[in-house]
Amino acid sequence: MLPYNFSQKIVVRGGGDLATGVVQKFYRSGFPVVILEVPAPTAIRRSVALCEAVYDKTAQVEDVVCRKIDSPDGLEDCWRDGAVPLMVDETGDSIRIIRPAAVIDAILAKRNLGTNRGMAPITVALGPGFCAGRDVNAVIETMRGHNLGRLIVQGYAIPNTGIPGELGGKSSQRVLKAPVSGIVRHTRKIGDVVRSGDPLFTVGGTLVTAPFNGLLRGLIRENRDVPKGMKVADIDPRIDVDWNTISDKARCLGGAALEAYYYLANSKGRKGQIK
Description:
Elements: E1 10-13, H1 17-28, E2 33-37, H2 53-56, E3 58-61, E4 64-68, H3 75-80, E5 84-88, H4 95-98, E6 102-105, E7 122-126, E8 138-140, E9 151-152, E10 175-177, E11 182-186, E12 193-194, E13 199-203, E14 206-209, E15 214-219, E16 225-226, E17 231-236, H5 248-265, H6 267-270
Parallel strand pairs: 1-2, 1-6, 2-5, 4-5, 6-7, 7-8
Antiparallel strand pairs: 3-4, 8-9, 10-17, 11-13, 11-16, 12-15, 13-14, 15-17
């Protein structure tokens, strides 16, 4: 059991694959972390997303066990058991009851869904849609490249380009979107190695095939009713990638979030003197 200090609670808004990297860093550092999620998460890299506990009551990614609870009353029991509690709270109403030391917005919605500096002494947000110094204390750059994981205490992250970062020579081709609106039915599963043209899943009866050889790294839950154009799968051309562990990007962002907490917790950080 980790040596939790219940006075330093950390709220992480979002439980997708990148948010899970944030949760793990704080969890391993001995903080009592709680995840706030939406009623029906749409993560596609589900094997490394703690938000799956919304559907399955529990989820485990590497050494982190997550357990769904119904109210803040169950937080301390969960922490004493060495688990990370998750609550369905899309608007963050429970934050005023939890009274955390920090709120980390890891929703990655590319826009601010309500996180503000009044929520906690320290507020940090991942990615575009937030102004550091106004909306939150710090913003973390999420764009792949030289500045990935950089802390910003005044201004914005790089605007969303809508183009996924390049992996193995593939960029936008990696992301598969629903060709029509309808119910998703799986033909393959996460972790399968596929070849160009292999059937992957159907949406509303319309078949979607692999655009190139690779590893099916992400696939939205089966029987989900999705709108046309929604991101529903992800293929990685690097077939030897470990799809069942937290990604390099998620680890980088998690480390940056932990750095932001400690930086902002001291007086120099609060004056916003990151260069």
